[in-house]
Write a structure and sequence with these properties.
By secondary structure, the chain is of the alpha+beta class. It has a single domain, classed as Gcn5-related N-acetyltransferase (GNAT) (Aminopeptidase), CATH 3.40.630.30. It is built from five helices and seven strands. Strands 1-2-3-4-5-7-6 form a seven-stranded mixed sheet, covered by helices on one side. The longest helix is centred in the middle third of the chain and has 17 residues. The chain starts with a strand and ends with a strand. The model has no long low-confidence stretch (mean pLDDT 94).
Length: 169
Amino acid sequence: MQPTVRIMSLEETVIITDYFNSSSPEHLELMGVDPTRLPDSAAQKRFIELEYEKPLEQRKFVAVIWLLDDEPIGFSTAEKIQIGKHAFMHLHVVKEDLRNQGLGAACVKQSAAIYFEQLKLQRLFCEPNAFNVAPNRTLQKSGFTYVKTHNTVPGPLNYHQAVNRWVFE
């Protein structure tokens, strides 16, 4: 069965907060996430609710859900959005037993198509931790082009780290 991807409903955003709050310290570190920067569940939920009150093109982030047999298996978010120009995406397979099975590439392709259509993008970037092999392979398989490796703080939950910048145009 092929995975499907669509814009995430507000009710489904619990997958995001549950994912980060239930991830092991080792998994968070692999993603470059600093656990001390994770807001509590109530603050995460309120931020998401406030964003979902805005039209899609005015949000700070857009989320899509990845489904297999109508069951959530992961999600992607786009942030640092400049409508008509570019955005930065994140990708997460939340079901551990489904990681490293090639599902992510199919989901990333569909996610990119949604972001390009909904946000009128020219470019979509992704900057996974340089030492996290799985998302880097997934991006390559999905048609993204490697740009460079550099040190940065890729997002508000992350610590300073080496990341690989990928782009899809």
